[in-house]
Amino acid sequence: MTGLIAATLVVAAVLWLPRNGLAAVLLLVMLVAGWEWAGLVGITSRTGRVLYLVGLTGLAGAAAWLETRVDPRWLLATAGVLWAGAVVALILYRSGRYQGRRGGLALGAAGLLMLVLAWVALLDVYALEPTLLLFFLVLIWLADSAAYFAGRRFGKTPLAPALSPGKTREGLLGALLATALFALAGAIRLGLPPLMSVYFLELCVLTALSSVAGDLFESMLKRRAGVKDSGHLLPGHGGVLDRVDSIVAAAPIFALGLHWIDWSATAGG
User: Fold this and answer.
1) Could you give the CA distance from residue 160 to residue 170 in angstroms, rounded to a whole number?
2) Which of 79, 106, 196, 201 could bridge across to 192 with cysteines, CB 3.0–4.6 Å?
3) DSSP secondary-structure letter at 167?
């Protein structure tokens, strides 16, 4: 029920709110996620978390200002580099690593950038075409659900046992298969030519892989903090960050990839 209500509210916001209204709603979501992120990296006092959100808001304002003066692909590429570094951190992760004040500061700073750049990316996709933002959100939800059910049914080989013992390679393959099929249907619906359809399918698969990285990165934060959920705001789902971690990682990759598609050449363009 919580998931159904949340999904309905998201779809309604994308379809009916003006861009500024949607930007405000998405920023509110990122602020709640930022509050939880702060707790995971060791900022436990209310004052400290409020200051973290002030920094997040200020950085969002700076990013919005910067986006009007430079090619947005530079911001999206920055997010891509940041997440490439996050993947390296995941590969190098061992129990007890990234503890201490220095690790907390680095992960806290990374959180500010990751959340703000995801916000920028979501609005960038919306600016290209609102239905593409809905497509992206459904893609992530589908990949997550497919991974869960494929893992439950066929899962045998752990994907990242040190971070998330419940995730399996079979679940990942199920997610990628579901993603590919959904991307193919999307390419047909969008009227993309054959070669561009192949590119779009590859982009969607890469986006799904990025979403897994986001999920695992949050799992690393929770392992570091010794907690199961980032928060308890959503009944049955944990915290907001538990629901948007995949989106935070995948949105910049999807948005960046869309800039290489000539939408004016499509049937809908």
Assistant:
1) 12
2) 196
3) E
Residue 257 CB coordination number (10 Å): 18
DSSP letters along 6-58, please? HHHHHHHHHHHS-HHHHHHHHHHHHHHHHHHHHHHTT--SHHHHHHHHHHHHH
Unique residue bearing structure tokens 């969607």: 204
Do the bridges between strand 158-160 and strand 164-168 make them parallel or antiparallel, or are there none, so unpaired?
antiparallel
pTM confidence score: 0.92
- Is 94 strand, coil or helix? coil
- pLDDT tens, position by position, 77-114: 999 999 999 999 999 887 777 777 788 899 999 999 99
User: What is the rounded CA–CA span in Å between residue 51 and residue 57?
Assistant: 10
- pLDDT, one tens digit per residue, over 171-222 is 999 999 999 999 999 999 988 999 999 999 999 999 999 999 999 999 999 9
> Helices 100-128 and 72-92 sit at what angle, rounded to 10 degrees?
140
- DSSP letters of 203-259? HHHHHHHHHHHHHHHHHHHHHHHT-S-S-SSBTTTB-HHHHHHHHHHHHHHHHHHHT
Cβ atoms within 10 A of the Cβ of 83, count?
24
- Distance, in Å, from the CA atom of 267 to the CA atom of 120, rounded to the nearest integer, reads 27
Quick one: which of 125, 132, 109 has its CA closest to 23?
Answer: 125
